[in-house]
Design goal:
Elements (H helix, E strand, L loop, with lengths): L31 H12 L10 H11 L4 H15 L6 H6 L3 H7 L6 H19 L2 H10 L2 H8 L7 H10 L11 H9 L9 H11 L2 H17 L26 E2 L4 E2 L8
Antiparallel strand pairs: 1-2
The structure holds iron/sulfur cluster.
């Protein structure tokens, strides 16, 4: 089982924050990708997204790059404790932060020198472009998702996954399916995306094939599924094909139960 259990409360803003509730029924799915997400809906707690403050969400996502939630959460808490005051705009406070102090504050997240530089750069960018974290929040929530995405990608240290997470968790935008390492691996193993598809191609396929209201749940539930069943080195079907609840929907690309071998789908023979 995962050591990162579901939170007891809905950590997002729920329907009040712009999230949309969805029905999950594999029997009525129009595509295989939707059937997979519907089955995840039967396996895991369903929740809606949106409502988080956009700049806080951006900082949270930068902290989580290349590390686990377990390591990045204390860094996030320590950062907010030190830099987020009632009468202080978080972007303003971080833009003026001493880099070495910020690095020390977030040290539990790993790569803290690089991340502290990115966070300060991002805070400066938010102040320059929008004037405050609150104005940035309004931009993320009100502008067209494609425009928000394009703008976020201009910032050094912000990649497509970070941009999509901000759109999803802050903006509550339907139709945004961020692709991290789990999502990238699993949908290629399933045979839903081509074996050599890059992150952007997998995202385009999922956003095309999964209804908008189910994309946010699909993202987080796929990550949980990747930790519990379809892990990088030892997918559940390797020893026992019956052990995976997704087996009947899966092509198992790069997984060879006869030999116990697992390769990246891009390296699997056709
Ligand atoms: S059947 Fe195997 S490869 Fe397919 S999703 Fe399940 S664990 Fe992953």
């Amino acid at each position: 089982m995962s050591d990162d259990p579901e939170p007891a409360v809905n950590i997002s803003g729920g329907t009040a924050g712009g999230g949309v509730a969805a029905e999950f029924d594999p029997a009525t799915a129009d595509t295989r990708a939707e059937a997979v997400v519907d089955r995840l809906g039967e396996l895991y707690w369903q929740k809606t997204y949106g409502g988080q403050d956009a700049f806080t969400c951006l900082v949270r996502t930068i902290l989580s790059q290349n590390t686990s939630d377990k390591a990045s959460q204390p860094a996030h808490d320590a950062l907010l404790e030190r830099y987020d005051g009632d009468d202080l705009d978080l972007a303003e406070s971080l833009a003026h932060a001493e880099q070495s102090t910020l690095a020390e504050t977030i040290s539990s997240a790993g790569l803290y020198n690089q991340k502290s530089e990115t966070i300060i750069d991002t805070a400066e960018w938010v102040l320059e472009e929008f004037g405050s974290a609150a104005a940035f929040d309004t931009f993320v929530k009100d502008e067209a998702p494609a425009a928000v995405r394009e703008t976020l990608l201009e910032v050094r240290g912000v990649g497509p996954k970070t941009a999509d997470c901000v759109l999803l968790f802050a903006g509550g935008r339907g139709g945004v399916f961020p692709v991290d390492t789990h999502v990238h691996r699993i949908y290629r193993r399933l045979g839903i995306a081509p074996p050599d598809a890059d992150h952007e191609t997998v995202r385009e396929i999922l956003e095309r094939d999964v209804p908008a209201a189910k994309c946010g749940f699909g993202h987080t539930a796929t990550i949980q599924f990747g930790r519990e069943y379809c892990t990088a080195r030892k997918p559940a079907c390797l020893d026992d094909p019956e052990a995976c609840p997704m087996a009947d929907l899966c092509d198992q690309v790069g997984v060879y139960s006869e030999t116990g071998e697992v390769v990246d789908p891009a390296d699997a023979p056709e």
